[in-house]
Specification:
Elements lengths: L3 E12 L2 E12 L3 E5 L6 H8 L7 E6 L2 E2 L11 E4 L11 H11 L4 H14 L15 H13 L5 E5 L7 H16 L3 E6 L2 H7 L2 E6 L2 E6 L1 H6 L5 E7 L5 H8 L4 E7 L2 E6 L5 H10 L4 E8 L2 H9 L6
Parallel strand pairs: 3-8, 3-9, 6-7, 7-8
Antiparallel strand pairs: 1-2, 1-4, 4-5, 9-10, 11-13, 11-14, 12-13
Helix pairs in contact: 2-3, 2-4, 3-4, 4-5
Organism: Pseudoduganella violacea
InterPro entries: AAA+_ATPase (IPR003593), ABC_transporter-like_ATP-bd (IPR003439), ABC_transporter-like_CS (IPR017871), P-loop_NTPase (IPR027417)
Protein name: ABC-2 type transport system ATP-binding protein
Length: 313
């Protein structure tokens, strides 16, 4: 058995003359969580829609366990669970009745269906609300019920399209707990988001997508290694530093970059724990500080480094 569960190759789709997805390729290994990260309109939803066989592609292939996932019913598709951006629930049926209905679509019935419904409700932490209607649920609870529905047939790969948009913090945590439990069971996940903190928390591997193209396809550690600085120190001095001082600062150990704007210095650091040494050095040079702050580099910086633009533009 190969380690590769899903293989996406040169996937493309245009809407009219707009190329929404332009030759996207990446793989998902067994047990791996892949974060598909990109700004709004980058092509994430279109990509996952094609992976699930819900949207027809203009070109490219999607193989799951070596089998093509096309449109229509097929065995490969059954190994995928999909949680779309838009909720799909019957508001007037109870949570349990909703799941029974979805389970029946997968050919589950009788006692095994009931057992599966209760197990997935437990997994998304809605077991105590089984008899309640989604009409009485918060947005986050509805989202969790939708995740439960996608898990009924016990898929190998769960694909979630921006699952935390419009979700309250309590449900957000419950969703993360569910996904972490699935990871621990060895399931594979694809998680699309434009929230870098979420992708950082969950993903073993990150695919950054922009304008329908893959810009990076790496582990978080490798992505960070691309950055010129792993942390930043911002210091506001009482007086603007001399050019000689700024130049000498740039030569200090652990300092990767120095930018000066008036009395403010932005210092790139090879590691965050080098900030105190830099501050001591500045103090030794007779500098007085008004304010200073440090920040660890994040995926936002990586996106900025790759595209010259902010992820949230
Ligand atoms: N049905 C459609 N008809 C026409 N254009 C579309 C359609 N769906 C998406 N697009 C366009 O395709 C591009 C990619 O959209 P897509 O929804 O895949 O991006 P996304 O990264 O998922 O963004 P979002 O987070 O906003 O959903 C965008 O420019 C979008 O406007």
């Amino acid at each position: 058995m190969t380690h590769v569960l899903l293989s996406v190759s040169k996937l493309s789709k245009s809407y009219g003359d707009r190329r929404a997805v332009d030759g996207v390729s990446f793989q998902v290994l067994r047990g791996q969580t892949v974060g598909l990260l990109g700004p709004n309109g980058a092509g994430k939803s279109t990509t996952v829609g094609m992976i699930c066989g819900l949207l027809a592609s203009d070109g490219g292939t999607v193989l799951l366990d070596g089998e093509a996932v096309g449109q229509g019913q097929n065995a490969a598709k059954r190994k995928i669970g999909f949680v779309p951006q838009d909720l799909a629930l019957y508001e007037e049926l109870s949570a349990l009745e909703n799941l029974k209905l979805f389970g029946a679509l997968y050919g589950l019935k009788g006692a095994p269906l009931k057992e599966r419904c209760l197990a997935v409700l437990e997994l998304v932490r809605l077991a105590d609300r089984a008899q309640d209607k989604p009409a009485t649920f918060s947005g986050g609870m509805k989202r969790r019920l939708n995740i439960a529905a996608a898990l009924l047939h016990d898929p190998q790969l769960l694909i979630l399209d921006e699952p935390t948009v419009g979700v309250d913090p309590q449900s957000r945590n419950a969703i993360f707990d569910t996904l972490e439990a699935l990871k621990a069971q060895g399931r594979s996940l694809i998680y699309t988001s434009h929230y870098m903190e979420e992708v950082e928390r969950l993903a073993d591997h990150i695919v950054i997508i922009d304008h329908g193209k893959v810009l990076a396809d790496e582990s978080p550690a490798d992505l960070y290694r691309r950055l010129p600085a792993q942390a930043a120190l911002q210091v506001e001095l009482a007086d603007a530093p001399s050019e000689a001082l700024t130049a000498a600062l740039a030569r200090q150990p652990g300092v990767t970059t120095v930018q000066q704007q008036g009395a403010t210095l932005n210092v790139g650091l090879a590691a965050q724990d080098q900030a105190s040494a830099v501050l001591r050095w500045l103090e030794g040079q007779g500098c007085r500080f008004l304010h200073f702050a440090t920040a660890r580099a994040n995926l936002e910086d990586i996106f900025l480094n790759l595209t010259g633009r902010s992820l949230r533009d």
